[in-house]
Design a protein that fits this description.
By secondary structure, this protein is of the alpha/beta class. 39% of the residues lie in helices and 18% in strands. The chain folds into two domains: 146 residues, Aspartate Aminotransferase, domain 1, CATH 3.90.1150; 248 residues, Type I PLP-dependent aspartate aminotransferase-like (Major domain) (Aspartate Aminotransferase, domain 2), CATH 3.40.640. A hairpin with a 5-residue loop joins β8 and β9. α12 packs across α13. The longest helix has 22 residues. The structure holds pyridoxal-5'-phosphate (PLP). Pyridoxal-5'-phosphate binds next to α5.
Length: 403
């Protein structure tokens, strides 16, 4: 492999990412190594993607076996892994009659939800298009970078340069039911929110908010759609984060952790909305590709086999306790610890970039969220010892920044 990756990036890769000055070459479990041989503890997990860590044996076995058999088939034909993954997820959700559609990324999963809402609106309007089409989303949401998802993401830094935005989106205050109630009108087809807002700073929705939205959607006969792209697939300590509020949404978007490192997106839709998408209305060449679905199956089977839900809950308590102690120790730097399961935000009194760099220097990789939050997103099978190591590096980094 080329050793001059940095110069090749500068010459050949479009500069739309603020990429860190290191090149990752391999990993094992919760560890990754750069091209200079430096080892890192990975609490970024490819932004909540490597849910089983790197190169988990069950994941490698499933993906390698499928690669030898059939990597791609297209949706002109059935393939076994797609059927098996859909059944496994639907069974784990335990809602009879629900179905899946597979795609390749988070934003694409949200595009499918947005199209589902439009089809629902058309049906509700007696077959008339463009009458009932609005979607109420939340302030500070992040749903992705394509035109539908971007329009649902009311952030200047995401939308700037791409006007005009797709019509029909309005934004209520997150965790403020009344502001959503005010926005739902006769033209509204759906509500779409993240049960834990991720990119804007790791803010969990309250159970009252999600329950209230469920009631509102039932009352107004509109779809209740959730974006669980970051918080779903066991990251919160339950298969979906919304389950902790005791509600069942009408449709959910998934991606990230579902593939455990292989690109995949999906929507889960409950009956009777499973028939809205009819043949020819939506599609993608790669969606439900056998290789991606084999990766997804390995993730779901391993979550069950290794009881990772229990691990997430247990480790989350440990980590939050330790981080709360760090907050007490560094009150001028650490303002808040918040989150759910292994999606934990550490609210800082200063910009994240120097903290992330100081952590990297210590050997810990984390992700930022907004301007003042860093995210701990370790693999679902992370150990207490690894968390203690991360805490130790965090303290050293904060110490170095306090001087
Ligand atoms: C909640 C949420 N929705 C959607 C997306 C977009 O997913 P992708 O980057 O795979 O398009 C993300 C990505 O960070 C996300 O966190």
């Amino acid at each position: 492999m080329a050793k001059n990756t940095q110069s090749l990036y500068e010459k050949y890769i479009i500069g739309n990412y603020g990429v860190a000055p290191l090149t990752l070459v391999r990993g094992k479990g919760r560890r990754v190594w750069d091209d200079k041989g430096k080892r890192y503890l990975d609490f970024c997990s490819g932004i909540a993607v490597n849910s089983l860590g790197v190169a988990h044996p069950a994941w490698v076995k499933s993906v390698s076996a499928q690669a030898k058999l059939l990597a791609h088939a297209s949706n002109l034909f059935r393939n076994e892994p797609q059927a098996a993954l859909a059944k496994t997820f639907v069974d784990m959700m335990g809602v009879a009659g629900a179905k899946m559609f597979f795609c390749n990324s988070g934003t694409e999963a949200n595009e499918a939800l947005i199209k589902l809402a439009r089809l629902y609106g058309m049906k509700k309007a007696g077959g008339k298009e463009g009458k009932i089409f609005k979607i109420v989303c939340a302030e500070n949401a992040f749903h992705g970078r394509t035109f539908g998802s971007m329009a649902a993401t009311p952030q200047k830094k995401i939308q700037h340069g791409f006007a005009p935005q797709l019509k029909g989106f309005s934004f209520g205050k997150f965790n403020d039911l009344k502001s959503f109630e005010k926005l739902v009108d006769k033209d509204t087809a759906a509500v779409l929110v993240e049960p834990v807002q991720g990119e804007s700073g790791v803010t969990p929705a309250t159970a009252e908010f999600l329950k209230g939205l469920r009631k509102l959607c039932d009352k107004k006969k509109i779809l209740f759609m959730l974006d669980e792209i970051q918080c779903g697939i066991a990251r919160s300590g339950t298969l979906l984060a919304c389950q902790q509020s005791g509600i069942v949404p009408d449709a959910v978007s998934l991606a990230k952790g579902l593939g455990g490192g292989f690109p995949i997106g999906a929507i889960w839709v409950r009956a009777p909305y499973t028939d809205l998408l009819q043949p020819g209305m939506h599609g993608t060449t790669f969606g439900g590709n056998p290789l991606a679905c084999a990766a997804g199956l390995a993730v779901l089977e391993t979550i069950k086999a290794e009881d990772l839900l229990a691990n997430v809950k247990d480790i989350s308590k440990h980590l939050i306790r330790k981080l709360t102690a760090v907050k007490k120790e560094f009150p001028a730097l650490v303002k808040e610890v918040r989150g759910l399961g292994l999606m934990i935000g550490i609210g800082l009194a200063k910009e994240t970039a120097p903290v992330i760099a100081a952590l990297r220097a210590q050997g810990l990789l984390v992700a930022g969220a907004g301007n003042h939050t860093i995210r701990f997103l370790p693999a679902l099978n992370v150990t207490k010892a690894e968390c203690d190591e991360a805490i130790c590096m965090l303290k050293k980094a904060l110490d170095s920044l306090s001087q």
